[in-house]
Structures
1.
Amino acid sequence: MSMHPLVVATGSSKVELPCSQPVAPLETKGAAFCHPSMVRVSRPGKDSGYPPHFLRIDQRERKVRYGLLTQKDESVPLKSITVEVSISGFIADVSTTLCYENNKCNPVEAVFVFPMEDGSTIYDFHAEIGKKSIDVMIKDKQKAREDYDDAISSGQQAFLLEKTEIPDVFRLSVGSLSAGQKATLSLSYVTELPVEADDALRFCLPTVLCPRYTPQGTTSVTKGVPRVPFGSIPYTLSLTCHLVSPNGISNVKSNSALMPLEYLSDDKTEAKVSLSPGFQFDRDVVLLIYYNHPHQPTAIVENGLSSAASGSLMRDPVIMISLYPEFPELTEQSLSIKGEFIFLVDLSDSMLEKMNGDPDSDMRIESARDTLLLLLKSLPLDCHFNIYGFGSDFQHLFSNSVKYSQMTMKSAMKEVKSLHANFGGTNILAPLRDIFGKACIPGYPRQLFVFTDGEVENTQEVINEVKKNASSHRCFTFGIGDGASTALIKGMAKAGSGYFQFISRKDRIQPKVMKSLQFALPPAVTNIKLNWHLPNLVKVAPISETPHVLFNGQRTVLYGQLKTKANKNAVGRASLHYTLCGKEYKSEIRFGLKIDKHCRLTAHRLAAKVLINEKEDERFLSSMKDKSETIKKEIIKISTEAGIITSLTAFIAVHKEKHKAIQQPMVITHIPLASFPSCSQERISWESYYTSCIRLHPRLRGGGGGYGTPPTTLRGGGGGYGTPPTTLRGGGGGYGTPPTKLRGGGGGKPKDKVDEGDSADMPEVRSDNLLKLVSFQNVDGSWNLEDRLMTLLSKTEQEVLQKMPAEIKDKSVWATFLSLLWLHGFNSNRKDEWKFVALKAVAWIKAQTGLNLELCLQAGNDLLGCQMDLQTLGLQPS
């Protein structure tokens, strides 16, 4: 191995090539590798995890062209993508067909790097050239790559489908496609659909692949992907979805234009919907499917393959059950739960993007600010909290989590309202290590909330960091906008025994975040046990682990392998037992053991993926090399038996009829994706930063130095706008270097102290009146009777005081009662956002003695024009 220049002999001449990557000795593939413009250099070691690299040598310019770089006005061989989705219950079976045609005069190698929803299980891949079907095999990934290279260097046509180093990004290589030749490639996968906050099932077809943040010293998968402007993608997408549910299909919504929903049965248990023509590839395609009874438990018993090995997973029947644990809803008592809440917020440049395509819509950072404000006001009374911002670097509001109080909350709100997305890249690993490196507060369980648009390359390393610290916290994640890494968002939540949610174009982030806060507040469910009750002689081998965490009303899917067949009329039961607050609960389903003989092995493949995931976790935790190698072989064995690819295996197809070696230089074409100029790994220019600061934060206060160069402080003095910022709230010196604290700087106030009378200096919440009202609330749940509250209620001070019952001596009681009425009377459609705020207000009002609630209700209804009752407000006498 050497870092010296690479010397390549080409015919009678030698070319010296600068090479920044360590390489193994040059391999020319012997006589079969005949064209002088193509040589192969591979990194040493079959288990290095990197594919061999072809170097395209231009002898005139004497430079190496790595990978797939032809980017002029050449036509792209991928012409169309057709997607057929079949959704039965909560399982989606997806078939994707990609049509290629080489319009060039030379043979083509086309490489398509594309995202896929994490958790998807690819179980089928086949290729056709003309009407000739090409045999496909699953192999060890390294061996598959070598077979692919051998085939195309020998003039044969080959196809390789593999996972990249990023778990939710795949690479499809087509080589070599002869001039004028057509090819059709099809891949199929199955996936479980997650449940949204409003009980919809969410199907996502990712089309957006943003550049991923790549830590120094690692290789980027997405950096070399060519980009074209929106509307210029040279291939088309069509999508049709077939829906089946015995409980009835009530509606389908999407962030993209759909054709009208077509029911295929009178009882609305079967329907079809299609994507409208003209999709522009500027967003992930998201379908929200609504069933009439979404929480209905289900069970499927699926027959195996008679041709599979005896005793194997694919040979025996598999049972798949879904349960919906139920326990009491949130009450005021939930607000007494102790906890440490840490909010980790992405402040990278890509958070400046819009939440949707509307130019007037919120930017991602604006939605994140609003959500943080709502979270701060919704926290339980006895808790600690902290806020981290991260990008290329990270900062925290407090050096350690602080007690939740009026003073600390007010301090936090000031900083939240001033947050900007100006931290460059997306290095999430560093702040995670800082958080986990600090001791937990005894008696206050740690709850971590992560907000990001999820564009990182070291996904597995981040997930592993969460997994290593899973015993000390729960992790709740939110993927914001199109292109968010599903592997990162889902993986962190799973590793941290939490819950994940995605916020796409038409979603409001606040209801989803409040749903996760509701999951975080109750005490953890304990003593979780799964019991199978089956007829005599029928044995089941559990495939899924017993769940480590349960959330109210959220689906739990479990798999089991039936070792002996039962009578077709036999009935079995599965029950999930758990304890909450000392009380025992149970979720149960009864099912028939009659086997469906017309199945597509969906449950088997999903069960195999569960087994593989568990083996991969075991391999990660293993410190012994021999054991790790044994587990690796087990993973490859399950993968090949089940026909599903993993990080260790790949699909390979070789058309062996053509043996003539390449006679012309092969054109390397990388299939382009849509351009995302602000999804950059690099920090935006300081000129752009300065412009965005003026637009987002008009209260910048400088010092007398003029506006000649980028700013030096957001609030500071005397130096003008000299260089990049040093603090978000600083003083005295201007903006010297990237920020180091969310609140700090030589001239700022102490970070744990805030004046009670400086509310006028606090930036205003944007025009959302609900968020304004929430921002006025005190930590204890009360409101003060002040001018800004009365303005929001559209009442004068005289009107408010005239209607206040004489028995109320504390104006805060009246202000709190009116605020509670206003929330229920004028914002009932957004109750998911303010219910925690209302619970705190109810608890505070109930703690006041001597109140005539009926009298207060009548006076409040008269003043605001409402018709509420005490039961609706949660104030009914106990």
Note: Residues 685-757 form one domain.
2.
Amino acid sequence: MINYREILRLRSLDYSQRQIAASVRSSRDTVSQVFRLATIHGLSWPLPDEMSNQMIYEMFFPAQLDSNAKRIPDYAQMHKELAKPGVTLTLLWAEYCEKCYSEDATHYQYTQFCDNYRRWARATKATMRIKRKPGDAFEVDWAGNNMSIYDKVTGEQSEAYIFVGVLPCSCYAYVEAFPSMVTENWITAHVHAYNYFGGVTRIVIPDNLKTGVIKNTRFETVLNRSYNEMAAHYDTAIIPTRVERPKDKPNVEGTVNHTATWICAALRNEKFFTIQELNDAIFLKLEEFNAKPFQKREGSRLSAFLDEEKPFLKPLPASPYELAVWSTAVVQSDYLITDGKNKYSVPFDLIGEEVNIRLTSRTVEAFFNGSRVASFPREAVRHREPIVKVEHMPDNHKKYLMYNETAFLEWSASIGSSTLLTVKQFLAAGSVVEQGFKACASLTRLADRYGHARLERACSRALAYTPAPSIKIINTILRTGQDKVDQQSSPNETNPGSRYGFTRGAAYFGGEKND
């Protein structure tokens, strides 16, 4: 449909027809026609909020409207029906469509049907008071008025934020103070409220705060993952209010005002030094508030809750909810993630990828493409070094971990006595054992290249030549294959003319030995 309101708004700002046509994606002829019809009907910006593009269209083109007339619903009857339990606009629209089909009449589409009804309700100043079903909804919000916590030593003042939740049917309320409005406290407040009520409602109606709702548009609602996980545990559904529509949860809005009077204002002359002290005082006032008699009907919030609502609440889950907070992070080159206090490793091949991090009081978990790739017990104490699993490291990092005396000795002992003796010689050759790590690491590479059996024979042959063998000698023995020569006799017995250890011989230079 043509955006008549936007065309008239831009006209009031003295934009040209060409500019307006480009902005609203309509032709200049259409813009010119709207200008002309607006002048005829005396329309000028600003327009009333309730005047929609459809209403302007009906005003501009009544002939076309009459030629394609649609059956107008009985809005007064709809209003009465909506007050009945379980009746929704969707149900009324379906019944309206069936009636139109049976009478061969044209019906409104659902969106226009709802818009027309709401327009009628505003025009007649009708207030839709739909009695909530017991156990159906739980409206939640942060109160606008904060309270204060004082430091015992310095007297410094800090803010305490008040969570308010109410069951609309009985108006039974729950109130608790928290040091901040972070996601953990928001979810903890829900958990405490459910425990206070002794049950769970079918739906939860929050505002569009970022700790609970990431995005809420006409087409989609994206909830905070931690908030959604909590709802799944309690088998409830989160249905946020429309953006900037606080009347979608009128009961909690009213309870917020009552809370400001009967709890916050009642405690205004008291000083609290901890959140626990403040909550102890709040809970006492909350009991008084819920037991306070209604002004315009019999009973109190407490009696209404016990008599009308509590039997209809869903039971609490068998296992208590474990608070989990989700976040995302891109894995850096050190293949570490953090819980804010300590760092934990993930598989190195995820470097550069975005992973989901799930934090509970006891565990740290990382997920990639829906699969868990790492899990650690969550450390309560801060560690200077990251917590790394060997299987998460690349091969060269794993080998670097072997660069210590104990690891080299254990490795060489698993190969053989000659290799062990050689490693001991390397470690004892310098003034400190670390000076022998390079030779030991080279020895491990020779084992990877030639195999453990050949390395053991090469070390044995090298030790027969000298008590202090070097990597160069062992490498030469392996490269020339001398470790494969029968070693039943010593080198001096094999070559009596050699008194100075290993010699290459004529065969090395391509010569032939004369018999």
Note: The chain has a mean pLDDT of 82.
3.
Amino acid sequence: MNVPLILTDFLDRAVSLYGSKEAIYCDDRTFTYSELNERVNRLSHGLKELGIEKGDRVAYLAPNSVEMLEGFYGIYQLGAIMVPLNIRLKPDDYLFILDHSESKVLFVDQDLYPLIVPIKDKLKTVTSIIVHYKDEETDEIGYDEWLSKQSNQTFERAILDENDVCSLLYTSGTTGNPKGVMLTHRNNYLHALTSMHHLRVSDKDTLVHVLPMFHVNGWGSPFYYTANGASQVCLRKATPETIFYAIEKYKATILHMAPTVLNALMQFYEQNLPVIEHDVRVVIAGSAPPPAFVTRVERELGWEFIQVYGMTESSPLSTISTIRSHLRKLPMKEQYRLKAKAGYPMIGTRVSVVNDLGEEVAHDGKAIGEVVVRGNGVMLGYWKNEQATMETIRDGWLHTGDMGTVDEYGMVDIVDRKKDVIISGGENISSIEVEGVLYEHPDVLEAAVIAAPHEKWGETPHAFVVLREGRTITEQELIAFSREKLAHFKAITGVTFVPELPKTASGKIQKVHLRNDYWEQKGKVSAGKFVN
């Protein structure tokens, strides 16, 4: 008899094999897996009392906390659907998502509750708002008191099929309203099995939850670290100071984060030189870093750098850049170059780079095409949006909108989002390649490159740059630096120095805001640059 792949299996395993282990650390609190399970049961009983049934949506607006972590399992026991909300949106965004998802219950952290106040009387389907860490002035249900009143006895679970939806994750669109990505128990279960293998997760690991759990469930980390009985540190506020403190205090072995967060950690390390004497793996997804950055992480910090690639619609991880055994004979410089790429397909996933005719491009590291993915992680579709689903999933392949190349080793390299490719005089320029060169300059802390309108060439690269503290460099000097390192048509033609770059809650630089503002200031609109 086939056993359905249901995510509650993972906590069951942790309780059975690691029940007495101190496993979850949040602020000054510590929980064993058995204690976590008791809280999960209380949550499930409480939700049932509120009328939540199989298929209902329950939303969370919270940072990384034990309350967020237990939400996944507490909701799934009822067969309900988790709707994690990005903590950096505006009240009207939450109004749209909560109404569109028809969420019935909203759990919100006290620090984020002010974002809900302006819209709570407009919500059409939310019947209960429960506040984590509630203060005395907030007139809502307090989570701790509410949870303490519920039974901690085993909850009678809903009967689920592995193809039932477990998570509804809203992607932040660049135009129009966000789309709700439907991921199933099977999607997340098989993604967990694949990811734990490739990331070598075991019960010896301690994960620091740096990546927000709302962000495609923190790349599935609440599932496969729990399944393996690993310890987990929940950081409600992830700063370089708190991250390094957690690594030292809990002897953390692995962290997931965006490149910009790792960059901030590198700056903190340079200034404070914290001593980390144990092995650490850092898993990065986002724009491909320059090989020199990988070298610094591994040689200065002594951490293993692991680049991965994926998107919400694929659960999310599809590729990984670890060096395969037969390539370890390559010079270290070449290995660092390979580690900076998106990598090769993970088990259970097929990844291809295709041209406009759907034909696979040459594996020469030069031919550019769109990255397409098929496999167990591909979403069920977009919630209430069949048109967008059909446009994104064609002939069984998920079209990512990312442009890439494939080298002779089968390593995919993301060169840009379709909308971020700069077309100058008929030549395609990768903004990521140009950014990689700017990061080589010792005065540059962060850089983002966009297409700027140009009368002769149509578009040319323009850089937004954050300088390191106390450093100065002129626009002309940075332009000259890029011309020394790149073919002249790829070099930047202008620089805007800014104190910071706009980022998502996971730390990804939002180039769409830079581009839209810049083009509006220039009085021009490029329709092709405003596509979601």
Note: The chain has a mean pLDDT of 93.
4.
Amino acid sequence: MKRYITPTLQISIGILSLTLSIIFIAYSLGFFPDEEKAALEARAKISETLALQLANLAGRNEADAIKDTIDAVVGRNGDVVSMAVRGEDGKLLVGSRDHDSLWVERADGKSTATQVQIPLFNGDVPAGKIEIVFRPMAADNIFGMPSSMMGFVGFVGLTGFAGYFLILKRALWELDPSRAIPERVKAAFDTLAEGVLIMDEREFVLLANNAFVRDLYQSSKSLVGVNAGTLPWAASGAAAEAAGEFPWQTAMHVEQPVLGIPMAIRNPSGESRRLSVNATRIVDGRGIVRGVIATFDDVTLLHRANEQLNTSIQELHSSQVKISEQNRQLQLLASTDPLTGCLNRRTFFEKAAQSLQRAVGQRQSISFFMVDADHFKSINDRFGHVVGDKVLAGMADVLERSCGDHGLVGRYGGEEFCIAATGLTAPDAERLAERIRRAVADIATWLPGGERVTISIGIASLGSTPCELADLVKRADEALYAAKTAGRNRYVSWETIRPPTEAARPGQLARLLAGA
């Protein structure tokens, strides 16, 4: 289980660390007295005073007084271990107990911090010296500082930490953003179903109701004191972010509320919630902006429903496109000849009747052609039906390319084709028939060995006297019969021949009229 250090404790530790650092820096710069130096100066003064006293007593030859003085100093001053007066010849004249074992003679004759020697003179003649043995200097330094100094640091640390902690705890309690909103106001906002954030002018959250924290953000931590702009708003759903600021930032600069801004927020588990955000600024009695209140409506379910609806509409549209394409294919299959791709007989005569009606109504010319492959039965017998089908498909292609947008091309049956062309005069119709005949006769790739296919064409044009489609069909059929009788591989116009009797070709004419 994790343990969290409170902000008060963190700040207290930080301030205490700063205080102790200042003390250590001040000590290293010499702002605190040097205890070792002070001790040496004190020993120097003691030695000087004793030297004067003992020299004065020695000058009066008061040996007992010297002995008493030495014993008194050693007994009373804990820093002095022993004292003695030594003659010029090196003999100990007067001294405290165990002085010889404590004194260490130095070759250079100089004093140290623990052993001090002061010369005595009889006038200008050396008469001996006074020897004083002090206790060793204190060596209980910690981190280069005397123990007494460390005691001071410890005292400052303990008392300072306690004082800092208490003061900061009170100060932070006074500055707690949550105290800006009374509890009764919080309770009222917690009853709302929509999320609510109240922010100060720096965007720090003063209040976040339960609906926002628990339902939208789904966090177990309080958001009070958190900058609202640092929350994980999803960029893909934040329309305000595209404009460079959030809705509550905009609301702080305008008098009118900011309404219905789409946004999204991602909770700690990574789930995104779609939101509709409204924001309005909060001003005090003097008109100064003190913050903003923002409400967040959860529209995730609505957004998902809209997405599903859009998906369904797209799928429906796709289905409609497929159905339309299938209908088009069915219509194409129902209206075209499967072998040649041109119109079948039923569709051709339906469209030809419509073209004739328009031509009569608009006083346009219309010509009807009957086209028949010469000796087609012989082609099937000699080369087979596969080659025959190739010839029929090729003929249909030539007819459609030759007519272009001027006519309808349909297969009546077998090797017979029909053409209904509008906007052509009788001479134009004959020129078209000749162009078709030559185009077919010039093709040497349909039959093996380069053998050519020829066709016969009968033409019937709408004259000045209106007639029915059946009349045009009959006339074109009679002209086709005349072309075949005249030797095939040619066209014949109905206007250039004497119409034969209906008994001439009753079978073929009956079939054409029945098809019409």
Note: Residues 60-134 form one domain.
